[in-house]
Design brief:
This protein is mainly alpha-helical and 193 residues long. 70% of the residues lie in helices and 0% in strands. The longest helix is centred in the first third of the chain and has 23 residues.
């Protein structure tokens, strides 16, 4: 007998009926994607952890007050909350994210990668490092779209809504990001395997 996992809305309903474990399941299901997107914006492990906690406090508070109405769109709703909290943080502190070479968190540590030999893993790691550095060098609006599209796995429609721009603007930012990355690869003679 195969058991079908509960969808997000069912978990939310159970949580609102007092089943705390259903919220743990919901958190476990989405925490990696939400935390990763926060981290890619703020580039600081402890700050990302703080914002991540604030996001889930806000989610719990909203659910308990009965104000959640995004049925079937929990992840997109949670991503919008995390994005807005990152933006609020930078507005309060009037600065943009910076790369910190001492960080211990690595997005590629949480991605599932098939087993390769040591040489392939080293090459992949070096390639990922190069790509991350290139993405970090993009203008903020372009970097934001790349992160939301490729790391948070959001559609351009969702990105446009989240960043409050048209779909064409979001697509344009992605296009320019790719052009800029190609240009940086050529100018710096970066070899991507």
């Amino acid at each position: 007998m195969q058991v079908t996992p509960l969808n997000d809305q069912q978990l939310i309903n159970l949580y609102l009926q007092g089943d705390e474990r259903s919220f743990e399941t919901l958190l476990e299901r989405h925490k990696q994607k939400i935390f990763t997107s926060i981290y890619l914006f703020v580039k600081d492990q402890s700050l990302a952890e703080d914002i991540f906690q604030e996001v889930f406090i806000k989610i719990i508070d909203t659910l308990r007050k009965g104000k959640y109405n995004h049925e079937g769109k929990f992840l997109q709703w949670a991503m919008r909350i995390s994005y807005n909290m990152c933006v609020d943080y930078f507005r309060r502190n009037k600065r943009r994210p910076k790369v910190s070479p001492t960080e211990t968190f690595d997005i590629f540590d949480v991605l599932k990668i098939s087993d390769d030999n040591a040489e392939q893993r080293i090459i992949r790691s070096q390639t990922h490092d190069k790509v991350r550095k290139l993405v970090d060098m993009l203008p903020p609006e372009q970097r934001e779209v790349v992160i939301l599209r490729h790391y948070a796995d959001m559609s351009f429609k969702e990105i446009a809504k989240l960043t409050r721009v048209s779909i064409n603007t979001a697509l344009g930012r992605m296009r320019y990001a790719l052009i800029n990355i190609r240009k940086m690869v050529e100018e710096n003679e970066v070899v991507l395997q």
